[in-house]
Amino acid sequence: MKNHVRSARIAANITQTDLARKTGITRQTIGLIEKGTYNPSLQLCIALAKELGKTLDELFWEVEEK
């Protein structure tokens, strides 16, 4: 699943470890989400968006290129 979690996290100056701690998951899971190899639950997506100060659309919406 393509997403913008990594860029939003870096822009917010938050480490993977800090984001994991704030959302109740492991740093490894954050890494997998950022790589697009782990599909987070809706609840986790909401928690990530809240901690990063973004909307779900900003983090997870895919725009098809024509």
Automatic annotation (TrEMBL):
Keywords of this entry? DNA-binding
Could you tell me which PROSITE patterns the record lists for this protein?
A: HTH_CROC1
Q: InterPro entries attached here?
A: Cro/C1-type_HTH, Lambda_DNA-bd_dom_sf
Which molecular-function annotations from GO does this UniProt entry contain? Answer: DNA binding
Which ranges carry the HTH cro/C1-type domain?
Answer: 5-59
This chain belongs to the protein called Transcriptional regulator
Q: Which organism is it from?
A: Chryseomicrobium excrementi
Q: What is the lineage of its organism?
A: Bacteria, Bacillati, Bacillota, Bacilli, Bacillales
